[in-house]
């Protein structure tokens, strides 16, 4: 059993998904609508009507059937506009994509403890496409691949080190721990060193009311008791990695989301291949956004994952869903192995406090703008009219 938000429950059984209201075993209005659908669609009189009348009757029945499932949407179900019908269609697509991502997430996590990496020959079977490398240094004059995040722009004559220093009170300024000074086996294990570096990054970035982050469009994810709240974040973990420090755009103006992943254990062969932790974390954050349905007008939900690898550095992964694949772009490995904060450490701070960008919304066609205020009974059925399957 899994909660899908807005007072609904989804009960999963073999080859069947049943939607119910919380604390209620039946949906009487859905039952009556189904009876109405059967009686209407099999009525000889309706069968003799024109194609326009039949289409109108079927669509009205469909909108009644989905009324409870999409209860949170602002839609006039008695006489929906063309735009409202498209909203229902997009929400239906989101829920189906959420089911797909949930299956993919299970497949990715199923082998994560035995083998932390996903090799290139496995990507296609998991519906993952690896695009070109993400240029975190912005050295390429032209990037033809989709880009949804940019690092924090620096004012002329200012560097990131000065910004970090000036945006934090002295007693809260980050302190870089040099793990090489400690006996690792006795005092500072790999897990502790990775945590110390994440702590430095966190203090350098700040929070929604203090530091660099407070001057950006980002805010932290919530840890509220009700998992239905829009920016609630439950950590994803399998004992080898854990997600941490989720960021969303304030007021949900954009669907972009960021998350940190702590992977403090050595990986045989290094960080060359894609980690299951990186892919799983991106899928999980995307899944949460889809379930809450706040981004129903957006066809793309970009995710930026920063993975803290062991105690040596980090890697940035950009992910989004395109067509039938999860598309990922990964940066080079950022080097943190030094007695003082490295240039790469400050570069990561710029990416965490950077700018969400890129086209994520559905394109509004001229036809959609023209039909925005018209009721369905006044126009012909749209070719993309919502179809509801049992």
UniProtKB/TrEMBL annotation:
Highest taxon of source: Eukaryota
Disordered as annotated region, ranges: 27-55
Composition-biased stretches (Polar residues): 33-42
Record protein name field: Uncharacterized protein
């Amino acid at each position: 059993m899994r909660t899908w938000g807005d007072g609904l429950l989804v009960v999963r059984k073999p080859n069947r998904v049943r939607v119910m209201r919380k604390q209620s075993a039946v949906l009487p209005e859905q039952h009556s609508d189904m009876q109405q659908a059967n009686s209407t669609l099999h009525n000889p009189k309706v069968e003799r009507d024109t194609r326009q009348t039949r289409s109108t009757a079927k669509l009205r029945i469909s909108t009644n059937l989905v009324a409870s499932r999409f209860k949170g949407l602002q839609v006039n179900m008695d006489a929906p506009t063309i735009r409202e019908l498209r909203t229902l269609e997009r929400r239906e697509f989101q829920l189906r994509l959420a089911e797909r991502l949930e299956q993919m997430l299970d497949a990715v996590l199923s082998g994560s403890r035995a083998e932390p990496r996903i090799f290139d020959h496995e990507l296609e079977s998991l519906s993952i496409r690896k695009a070109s490398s993400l240029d975190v240094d912005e050295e390429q004059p032209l990037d033809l691949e989709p880009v949804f995040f940019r690092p924090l722009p620096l004012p002329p004559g200012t560097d990131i080190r000065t910004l970090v220093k000036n945006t934090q009170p002295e007693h809260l300024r980050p302190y870089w721990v040099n793990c090489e000074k400690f006996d690792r086996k006795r005092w500072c294990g790999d897990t502790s060193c990775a945590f110390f570096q994440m702590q430095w990054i966190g203090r350098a970035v700040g929070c929604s009311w203090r530091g660099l982050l407070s001057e950006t469009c980002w805010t932290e994810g919530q840890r509220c008791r009700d998992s239905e709240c829009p920016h609630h974040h439950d950590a994803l973990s399998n004992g080898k990695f854990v997600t941490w420090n989720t960021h969303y755009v304030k007021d949900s103006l954009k669907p972009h989301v960021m998350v940190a992943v702590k992977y403090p254990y050595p990986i045989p062969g290094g960080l060359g291949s894609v980690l299951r932790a990186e892919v799983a974390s991106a899928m999980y954050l995307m899944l949460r956004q889809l379930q809450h349905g706040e981004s129903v007008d957006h066809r793309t939900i970009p995710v930026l994952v920063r993975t803290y690898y062991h105690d040596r550095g980090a890697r940035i992964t950009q992910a989004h869903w395109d067509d039938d694949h999860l598309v990922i772009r990964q940066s080079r490995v950022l080097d943190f192995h030094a007695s003082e904060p490295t240039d790469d450490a400050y570069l990561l701070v710029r990416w965490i406090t950077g700018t969400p960008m890129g086209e994520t919304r559905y394109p509004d066609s001229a036809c959609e703008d023209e039909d925005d205020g018209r009721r369905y009974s006044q126009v012909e059925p749209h070719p993309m009219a919502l179809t509801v399957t049992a």
